[in-house]
Task: structure prediction
Amino acid sequence: QVQLVESGGGLVQPGGSLRLSCAASGSIFSINVMGWYRQAPGKQRELVATITSGGSAYYVGSVKGRFTISRDGAKNTAYLQMNNLKPEDTAVYYCNGVPLPDSGVRYWGRGTLVTVSS
Result:
């Protein structure tokens, strides 16, 4: 089993920055891909970014150039640095873990709220 705990959300003005953290515990050796998803009010959860254990990153088009995903293996933590935030980035952000081998199981955190507003 893997437990994921997000932190770092909050209220920020448009153009501001936040860094989200996702701390993993449990059978963390099994995690291959870690990712960030978000769900805005009234909308479906969507992928934001992913990073493999080898450091390969993927970003959805709307956050490219503004968000950076990273992971620290020693600390068992993944990060999402968010710059130039926009009101449309307002959502609950969830951390996700995909094991290797991929059994179809997905690990999720409980989410952290990011609100971008003046």
Remarks:
- The mean pLDDT is 94.
- The CA atoms of residues 40 and 91 lie 4 Å apart.
- The radius of gyration is 14 Å.
- The first strand starts at residue 2 and ends at 7.
